[in-house]
C-alpha cells in the first residue's frame, strides 16, 4: 500500500505521540487516512514481511473508511474526542464489531462478535480508529504462541519472545505498527510484555477498567485491561478514556469516584523529588533462577535504576522481606467457574462459536491448541481457591503494612527477573515461558502496577522496573513513572523496524 498523506511538515511517524498526531492534523501535515495508511505500510513491511514480527492477527477492514469519516468530521468540527484519529491496536481477547475475536486460536478463527466490548466502545466514542487485533498467548495464556499464527517475535531480538500473554500489543506498539495499544493482564500479561518490548504498561487497580466483552474477563480472578504505550504521557491519555463504571462488570462499582478528572495532571517531571520508594530485592519471579547469568544481567540494570531514582530526588528505602512470600505465591488457584465465565462472555452474542465450552473442547481443532507448560499449574476447586483467597489477603495486608511502616509512596521492583527467553525454549523443553515473571499482582489485585523502561542489559535486551502502589493510587504511580521516564529517557525503538523509504 502507498500512502496518500498530505505532506510531512514537521511530523515524524516513528515514535509519534497522541499530541504529535493532533498537531499534525491541525497544521495539515497529515490526515487520519494518511496516518492509517502509514501504519498499514509498516504492518506489511515489518510484521508480514521483512523481520516478520508476526504480532498482528487481523487488520480492521473498515479502518480506512473510519479514517475518512474522522477526516470529514475534523474538517467541520475539529477534534471530536481525545483520541480523534489515533490508530489503536487491541489484544485479540477484546471484542470489536466487524472483526473476529480469535484468542490466537484456530478454535475461534471464525467467531465474529456482534458488538464491541465496553472498552472498545469507549475508544470509538473518543475518536480512535481501531487499527487491528494483535497476537496473544493462545486463549490468553503463556507466552505469545498460538495455533492460528505461530509465534510472535521480540522486535529487539527476533529469536526471543515478546512475553505474554499481551505480547502482540507489546511488540507491535514497540515496532511502531500503531500509535498505542491495549493489553489484558491476569498474571503479568501487561507488565511483562511492556518490559520485554521496551514500552510502558499499567495494570490499573481492579475496578477502574471494565472487562465485559473480554474473554476470561468477569467473573473470576480480577484482571484488568490496560494501555501499552511508548510514553507515559500517552498512557495517561489512554487511561482517561478507558476507565469508567460498567453495569456489566460489577467490579467497576468499586472504581466509582476513584479516578481523577484527568491522569495527565499527574505528569510531573519532578514527581520523584521527596518520594519515599521501598526497594524490593527479594526474588519473587515465577521459576526464577537467581544464581544464573541471565538473572544477574537484569539485576545489574535494576541496581542502576535504583541509583537513578535517588539521583532524581527519591528517598530510597530498603524493603524488608515479605513474610512467607514464596509459600503464599505457591497457593495460586482458579475459582473453577469456567462454565459461568464462558456463558457470560459468549452469552453476549447471538451467534456464539460453540453452544457450550464442552462442545468447544470436543471440536477437532481443540487438539491443535498450544498449551503452555505452566498454563495448568494453578490449582482448582473450592478448597484450593479458599486457600488462595486467604493467601491473597495475607499478602495484601503484609505489603500494605510494610508500606505504611516505611511511609513509602510506592514499592519498586524488577518487572521481570529474567531477560526475554528464546522462542524455542517456550515451545519445547525446558519450557521457559513465564520464567522470571513477578506475579505478585496475581495476589495484589487491588493495587496498581506500572512498568516503565529502565534501559538494556549488556546483551542489548530491554528491562523494565515496576512501581507498585496502594489501592487506587494509579495517578501517583503515573507520576512516579513519568518522572523516572523524563529523568532517564530509555525508550529506544527496535532496529528491526526502521523508517521506511519515504516515510515521514
Note down, in words, how this protein is organized.
This protein is α/β, with parallel strands linked by helices and 504 residues long. It has a single domain, classed as Amidase signature (AS) domain (Amidase signature (AS) enzymes), CATH 3.90.1300. The chain is built from 14 helices and 17 strands. The protein has helices at residues 18-27, 32-48, 63-77, 118-125, 167-174, 191-196, 232-242, 293-311, 325-329, 338-346, 357-361, 382-406, 423-427, 474-488; strands at residues 56-59, 87-91, 129-134, 145-146, 150-151, 180-185, 200-203, 224-229, 276-279, 285-286, 315-318, 333-334, 379-380, 410-414, 437-438, 449-456, 462-468. The strands form four sheets. It has an eleven-stranded mixed β-sheet, sandwiched between helices. A two-stranded antiparallel ribbon has the order 4-5. Helix 4 links the parallel strand 2 (87-91) and strand 3 (129-134). Helix 2 runs antiparallel to helix 3 (63-77) and helix 7 (232-242) runs antiparallel to helix 14 (474-488). Residues 1-7 have low confidence and may be disordered.
Layout of helices and strands, plus pairs?
Elements: H1 18-27, H2 32-48, E1 56-59, H3 63-77, E2 87-91, H4 118-125, E3 129-134, E4 145-146, E5 150-151, H5 167-174, E6 180-185, H6 191-196, E7 200-203, E8 224-229, H7 232-242, E9 276-279, E10 285-286, H8 293-311, E11 315-318, H9 325-329, E12 333-334, H10 338-346, H11 357-361, E13 379-380, H12 382-406, E14 410-414, H13 423-427, E15 437-438, E16 449-456, E17 462-468, H14 474-488
Parallel strand pairs: 2-3, 2-6, 9-11, 9-14, 12-13
Antiparallel strand pairs: 1-3, 4-5, 6-8, 7-8, 7-16, 10-15, 14-17, 16-17
Helix pairs in contact: 2-3, 7-14
